[in-house]
Design brief:
The complex is a heterodimer of chains A (177) and B (321). The two termini of chain A are 25 Å apart. Chain A has 177 residues and is an alpha+beta fold. Chain A has a single domain, classed as Alpha-Beta Plaits, CATH 3.30.70.20. The longest helix of chain A has 9 residues. In chain A, a hairpin with a 2-residue loop joins strand 2 and strand 3. Chain A is built from 6 helices and 10 strands; from the N terminus they run E-H-E-E-H-E-E-H-E-E-H-H-E-H-E-E. Chain A is globular. With 321 residues, chain B is mainly alpha-helical. Chain B has one domain: Formate dehydrogenase/DMSO reductase domain (Formate dehydrogenase/DMSO reductase fold, Up-down Bundle), CATH 1.20.1630. Chain B has 10 helices and 1 strand, in the order E-H-H-H-H-H-H-H-H-H-H. The chains are: A alpha+beta (177), B mainly alpha (321). Chains A and B meet through strand 2, helix 2, helix 3 and strand 6 of A and strand 1 and helix 3 of B.
Chain lengths: 177, 321
């Protein structure tokens, strides 16, 4: 089992519903977020190209945050999901410094927090909150090891990229082009 | 042209508009750690070379400060933790892949070592010192049989302490400015240099001051060499590292780094020390204080710049402090 997410940059309109859904589902404190919207404009007017991405923790297979954590608080769960065990986290913030995606933050309660792929929902057979709520169905979540899953099919048939693969962390959030 | 904007979310003050995970606590600790490593190294080294009566300040007096400096550094580290009551989790795991983990374990060894090593010399420095409890006196006398072994382990652990403060940062591939293996040796040499400067500061013997002036000049020269190499390496590397170097070559860190770290902290004391070695009388306190200041600034600038150097969202690069 290898959980991953594919986000269709052709469908995403940047409405930020995923951001709000995540904040509500995960009780993310005000002023913080586990996912965010990035708009990348390339070219000069009038020849402009816009790519909108919903970004979050990439649940890297070779995660630097897991490697540098001194207490094993950052760890891999089933399906390669990277999680932080709140009761082991000492708040040293090494993982924040180690993340090339800047996906982590210090929760006001002291521990380090980030996207969990809504593993609590996934274990109940539901989709992550951001995927569930996306009005343009731009997001696909699933198991890469299952050849018939929607995400496997999308990655077979569509061109895709990951963000800064050269950082060498083997990210598992894919952007369909 | 490429323009990137974060249009929603990402208003968390810990990360945006700039990554500010580590404030003053970490650079202060890195400085004190390096200083302690330097002092303990020289103390143990010259003890093993039987220079007890020549380099009194280095061998006997300077180590008395190390437990205090380390304690201040450790207090700063503790203050930096955001989940403080769980700090003991550091000592329920050993993670070899995590420099922070073996750093924590190194501190667990070097702190008691520094206390014992300082205790050996208390009576030499303060002849009227009374330990109050005979058990302490007896324990120290018993441990003193193994002084040579303590000295050797101090050389080992001070080397690790001095190196690891740099390796801690260079292990973060996500921060291009830190991601250079020069940082380990650079921090070690800087730590030794601040250690030598501290000895210079408290020494009362002409001969000792002369020798430590020589040592410090050599170390400052080495540091300059390593800094030049670091930038050569960055400029010959990938786009993110070229970008990281550019923060210092015209970017926001240019003035602060070249003025305070290189100018006031390295070149000026080097010049003064060379003048001194040639016979010009300058109070030793001036170059020594400059070197200590430069060492502190180096830690501040490196910790700060590393955090604002990044792979994504480069538009956020700016001075944190």
């Amino acid at each position: 089992m290898r959980y991953a997410m594919a986000i269709d940059t052709k469908r995403c309109v940047g409405c930020a519903d995923c951001v709000v859904a995540c904040q509500r589902e995960n009780n993310v404190p005000e002023g913080f977020c586990r996912d965010w919207i990035v708009e990348e404009t390339t070219g000069t007017f009038p020849e402009l190209q816009l790519e909108i991405r919903s970004e979050r923790c990439n649940h890297c297979a070779d995660a630097p945050c897991v490697r540098c954590c001194p207490t094993e608080a950052s760890h891999y769960e089933e399906g390669g999901v990277v999680l932080v065990d709140h009761d082991s986290c000492i708040g040293c913030k090494a993982c924040i410094a180690s993340c090339p995606y800047d996906a982590r933050f210090v929760h006001p309660e002291g521990y380090v927090d980030k996207c969990t792929f809504c593993i609590h929902r996934v274990r109940e057979g539901k989709q992550p909150a951001c995927v569930e709520v996306c009005p343009t169905h731009a997001m696909i979540f699933g198991d890469l090891d299952d050849k018939n899953s929607e995400i496997s099919k999308a990655l077979r048939t569509r061109k895709y990229k990951t963000l800064i693969p050269e950082a060498g962390t083997d990210p598992h959030v894919f952007y369909l082009l | 042209m490429k323009e990137v904007a974060i249009t929603s979310g990402r208003m968390n003050h810990g990360v945006d508009p700039l990554l500010h995970a580590w404030g003053w606590e970490i650079p202060l600790y890195l400085f004190l750690g390096g200083l302690v490593a330097g002092i303990l190294f020289f103390s143990a080294f010259f003890y093993l070379r039987h220079r007890e009566n020549v380099f009194t300040a280095a061998i006997k007096v300077a180590p008395l400060y190390t437990p205090v400096f380390l304690a201040i550094g450790l207090a700063a580290l503790f203050l930096d933790l955001s989940h403080k009551l769980y700090f003991w989790r550091l000592y329920t795991t050993i993670r070899w892949e995590s420099p922070m983990s073996w750093g924590a374990w190194t501190l667990l060894f070097i702190f008691p070592l520094s206390v014992i090593w300082a205790a050996f010399w208390v009576k030499d420095v303060y002849p009227n010192w009374d330990w109050k409890f005979p058990i302490i006196e007896k324990t120290i006398a018993w441990l003193a049989q193994f002084k040579k072994w303590f000295a050797w382990s101090l050389i080992l652990f001070s080397g690790i302490l001095g190196m690891y403060t740099g390796i801690l940062l260079s292990a973060f591939n996500a921060r291009p400015f830190w991601n250079t293996s020069i940082l380990g040796p650079l921090f070690l040499v800087s730590g030794l240099s601040t250690g030598a400067a501290f000895i210079l500061l408290i020494s009362r013997s002409e001969q000792e001051r002369h020798r430590f002036s020589q040592i410090d000049s050599f170390l400052i020269g080495t540091e300059l060499f390593l800094i030049i190499h670091m930038f050569m390496g960055f400029l010959a590397s990938t786009s993110v590292q070229i970008h990281a170097a550019e923060m210092f070559l015209g970017g926001p860190y240019t003035a602060i780094f070249w003025t305070f770290v290189v100018g006031i902290g390295l070149l000026l004391p080097l010049l003064i020390e060379i003048m001194e070695l040639r016979g010009v009388t300058v109070p030793a306190v001036i170059p020594a204080m400059l070197v200590l200041f430069g060492g502190l600034m180096l830690r501040f600038v490196v910790v700060d710049a590393g955090q604002s150097s990044r792979w994504l969202y480069k538009f956020m690069e700016q001075l944190v402090f």
